[in-house]
Write a structure and sequence with these properties.
The chain is mostly helical. The chain has helices spanning 7-18, 28-37, 44-51, 55-65, 79-86, 88-103, 114-134, 140-149, 152-160, 162-175, 179-187, 191-201, 206-213, 225-240, 257-261, 267-276, 278-290. The protein has a domain at 13-25 and 108-290: Orthogonal Bundle (Hypothetical protein af1432). The protein is globular.
Length: 294
């Protein structure tokens, strides 16, 4: 079981990551969009002008909005229509998450498959949002953001702490450990703690940070067990259905407290619920590949 980190551990994480001088700052487009959204006079057109400066981000937003798991009732062909049908805050959620994941993009190597990581992050995010909508969770846009960022710490670990990353990789192969247990052995903390540090540094809302921090054990979350559980369930489903799965989640340990937290009643009902999503997962994967977002 993952333990809640004590202040000494958090200070060690902070010291180690603060020593990395090349960590990306929050992308400029996020700063601009946030400033616009703080102004009550901002129009949809104002927002579209800023977003349209980055056509790669525009393409990604449209591909996500049109993915089967995202669940919009009609096709979105322009960023202007996306802003209208999705709403300002949801567009911001998508933009923030996509920009940050892109900022930590790594090349594929023999020990790190960024393509699989990116695909897994997108499917987890869209699946978590769809499940949130189906369960009538009121803030599904936030669920998408937390879902897309849930494994951000792994990308940071690979890119900026690569010697430790390789030690973890080798330990997993030598001793057949779960990756998260190997992280604990080598680092005395995990990729979740790395993400917590960065998201706090970038002033993310506490509920997003908590959902990312406890996505492997949502029952430990203090204030946002439902949000954490939605991410955990979607993450688990990628492994269970073997669609959008990621090797660092091999032998994923499901937190059965999620059954009660999300109101499924029993494990049999949850199993049926998971299987009912398989066609959506498959079509979502095809959509992401077709739009070259993998």
């Amino acid at each position: 079981m993952l333990e809640i980190k004590n202040p000494e551990t958090k200070e060690r994480i902070k010291k180690q990551l603060s020593a990395i001088g090349t960590l990306p700052s929050v992308p400029q487009i996020i700063t601009e969009v946030s400033a616009l959204l703080d102004n009550e006079r901002t129009s949809a057109n104002d927002l579209c002008k800023v977003i349209s400066k980055d056509q790669a981000i525009v393409a990604k937003i449209l591909a996500v909005a049109n993915s089967p798991l995202y669940g919009l009732p009609r096709r979105v062909s322009t960023i202007e229509f996306a802003v209208v049908i999705i709403g300002f805050e949801h567009i911001k959620n998508i933009l923030v998450a996509l920009s940050l994941v892109d900022a930590f993009k790594n090349r594929n190597t023999s020990t790190w498959n960024h393509t699989n990581y990116w695909l897994h992050s997108l499917i987890t995010a869209t699946a978590a949002k769809r499940i949130a909508d189906d369960l009538r969770y009121p803030k599904s846009g936030e669920v998408f953001t937390a879902g897309l960022l849930h494994d951000l710490g792994l990308a940071v670990l690979n890119r900026y702490m690569n010697s430790d990353f390789l030690k973890i990789y080798n330990l997993v192969n030598e001793q057949q450990l779960r990756h998260i247990n190997a992280e604990e052995q080598i680092l005395e903390f995990t990729h979740q703690d790395i993400a917590e540090f960065l998201l706090e540094k970038w002033n993310f809302p506490p509920y997003i940070i908590e959902a990312v921090l406890y996505h492997h054990k949502p029952s430990l979350a203090e204030n946002g067990k439902v949000l954490s559980s939605l991410i955990h369930l979607a993450d688990y489903m990628t492994q269970k259905l073997q669609i959008g799965s990621f090797e660092w989640d091999n032998n994923y340990e499901f937190d059965e407290n999620v059954i009660d937290i999300l109101g499924f009643g029993n494990i049999d009902y949850l199993e049926g619920f998971i299987q009912s999503y398989e066609p959506l997962f498959k079509s979502n994967l095809e959509n992401l590949i077709e739009n070259k977002l993998m």
